[in-house]
Queue: 2 jobs
Job 1
Amino acid sequence: MSQSVTVNLQAQGRRLRIEADGHHRDYVPLWLRERSPDDATRDPYTGQRLVEAAELPLDLMIETADVADGQLKLGFSDGHLTTFTLAELLNEQASDSPRQLWDAAEAPHSKADFATALEDDSALLSMLDALHRNGFVVVSGVPANNDGMQPLIDRIGPLRRTNWGGIADVKSVANAYDLTMTQRGLEPHTDNPYRDPIPGYIWLHCLANAAEGGDSTLADGFMAARLLRQRDPNAYACLTRVTPSFRYCDADTYLESEGPLIELDSRGDPARVRYSNRTENIPALPAEELEAYYAARKAFYELITGEELTLHLKLDPGQMLIIDNYRLLHGRSAFQLAGGVRHMRQGYVDRDSTASRRRVLQQRLATPQAQGEPA
C-alpha cells in the first residue's frame, strides 16, 4: 500500500484502530474474527464461513496487531491467528460503483450496441455499469424479431417469467387486460409493485413506432426523492413511513404486495421507489395521516411529472430501453394508430442476476485470464 497506515489496540484489546492518510476507523474484535480470511475460518473454495460466528466468545479481545508489507497480522484471545490484506480490509465498507442522479438538463447519454455487448465482455460490462450508474441504457441494433433481445438477456438473465409469460407484447389490443395495452398515455410509474419480489429491470424492445405520439418518458426517482427531502422534509418523511398496498387482479391472477413510495436502505438512503396510480390502495389510516400522505404524494407526483426531471425520448425500431425498475419512473404519451403501428416487446430481468453478472465481469476483467479460459 502506498498510503501510510498505523494500527493500535485500545480499550484493553476490545478495539483496533487503523489510521490511514489522516483518517481512522475502529474495529471490534468479533467483527474481525468472523471475517478472518484464513482457511480455518473460511472454506478456501467457496469462501463460506466454517466457524459458527454466534459461538465465538463475546469477550473476545485482540492481543497482537502488526502491520508489514500491506498485511495486518492479528492474534486473538481465543488463540486464533490470521492475516488480512489491508487494502481489502479498508475497502470493506466502500460502496458499490456510485450512482449518478440526474435531472432533465443533466440526463446522461447512456448507450450501448447490441452485437458488441453480445460478443465482448468489456462492452457488456460497460453497458451494465451505465445501467447501474444512470438507471437506464438505450441499446441499438437489436434484431427486429419478437425475441430479438433474448440472446442478450441470456448473457445476464435469466428472463423473469410472470403471469403474462416471458417476453410479451406491448401494443394496443381490443379488450385490453391492462392499460399498457391501450392507446392512452401512461403517467410516470414503476412496474409491478404488486409482485414479490418486484422485477428489477424492464427490457423494452421497439419493433415498430410509427404511430403519432407514444413517446417514452423517464424520471429519476432517486433525484425526485432527494429534491423532496430538500424542499419538503415532512413530505419526504411521510412517504418513507406510510405503506400503501398495490394490487393486480384479472380472471386468473390475484397479486398483492406493499411498500412505501420511497423505501430506504440501512444507511437511510433511497433504495427503491414505487409509484403506480393504477394499482395503489392506501389503507384507511387515521384522518391526519391520510391528509399528510395525500399532500406528500402530490408533492412527489409534481416532481416526477414536471419538466425539471422528465427526459423525453422516442425509440426507433431496433432500439431497446433497459430501465432500473427500482429507481426510474417511466411513462408514455398517448398515441394514435391512424399514423402507423406502435409495437413494443417487453421482458423483465431480476436485480440479483444483473448485479451478479456485473460484479463477476468486474472481477474477471480486473484480473488477467489464464490462456484459453472461457469468458
Job 2
Amino acid sequence: MALSLSERLSRELSHLQASGLLISPRVLHTPSRAHVRIDGQDVINLASNNYLGFADHPALKEKAAAYLREWGAGAGAVRGIAGTLQIHEDFERQLAEFKHTGSALVLHSGFATNQGVLGALLQEGDLVVSDELNHASIIDGLRLTKATKKIFKHADIMDLERVLQENDTDGLKLVVTDGVFSMDGDIAPLDKIVEVARRYGAVTYVDDAHGSGVLGADGRGTVHHFGLEHADDVIQVGTLSKAWGGVGGYAAGHADLRELLINRARPFLFSTAQPPAVVGALSAALEVVRRDPSLMQRLWDNARYFKAGIESLGFDHLGSQTPITPVIFGEAPAAFEASRLLLERGIFATGIGFPTVPMGKARIRNIVTAEHTRDDLDKALEAYGTVGRDLGVV
C-alpha cells in the first residue's frame, strides 16, 4: 500500500524534530535593519544579509516608488514575449558598466541564475570542476546538466590542478567557485584559480552572492578584488538580494553571454519579468554605493571590530575574512540553544546546523552591516560572552 502524504510529512517532520534540526523561522515585525522587532522585543539584528543597509534605505524606496507609479505593479509577461520594459534593459546596462563586463542579464534570484546559466552553457561532453563547498544552488544547477562533473577540495589550488590534469574534454571546461563562501566567510583564491584554469583552457565561473557590494572598488565584487575585471573568460553571477537590498540574480561577462541566456536560460524564459519597483530599488542601490564610499568603510570597520571581539572571547570563527562571522558551537542543538539565549539578551543571530553545514560544525552565522553602531556590537559581544560561558564553549 502506498505511503500517504500525511504519513510522509509526519515522518519527515518527526525525524527533523528528533535530530534537533527542525527550524521555525522568526517573524520580523519591522523592516530589515540593524534593529528589528521580534515577538514584541526590540533586538539587534545580526542575522540578515543586508550588508550596506539598503533593504530600508530612503533612496531605494524613493526610486522604487517612482518606478511603481510610472511603470505599474508588474511587467505582465515573461521577458521573451512582452515583459521586457525599457527599465529592465537600462538597469542591465548600468549593471554591466558597474561590473566592467561586456554584458549583464538579470534573473529572478541567485538560485535561479545558477540553474539558468549552468543549464544554458553546459552540454554533454563538457567538463565542470566545482569547489566542494559551493552553494546549494550551484550543486542543483549542475545536477540538471549532462556535463561531466568533478569536485576539487575547498580552495585547494593543487587539487584543482590535479583534477584538470586528470580530466580533459573536447568541449567546454568550466571551473566553478563561490567568490565568498557563505557559511565560513572565506574568500576564494580567485587569482590562483583563474591562473590554473587558463593553463588548462578552462573558463572560470564565480558565484559572487556575498562578494558583490562587499569586496572590490565600490563593491564591484571578488573578481575586481583580485584585479580580474574585463576578463572574457570569467563569468560572474550573484544575487541582488544581499548587499543590494532587493531581490533577483544576475549574470555578467562576455558580450555574447547575455544573448545566449536570453535564448537558452530556462528560468529567464519561463518566469515573468521583475516588477518595476524592484528594478527601481536596484538601480538606486548601484547609484548610492558609487557616490557614498563611507558605506563600505563602515561595513569593514564594523566587521574587523566584531571579529576581534569574538576572538578575544575565545570563540572559533574559522578565520573568516569577510563580514560573515561564524561562531562555532559544535552540534546543532547547542547552536540553536545559543541562538535562543542570545535572543533573550536582545541579539538576533540564527543557529545553523546540518545539512547546511557539516556535522559537528554547527554555528551561529553573524553578519555585521554598515548600519550597526559600535554600541550595538559591544552589546552583542557582551551577550556572546555570557552565552558562551553558560554553555561551556568558552
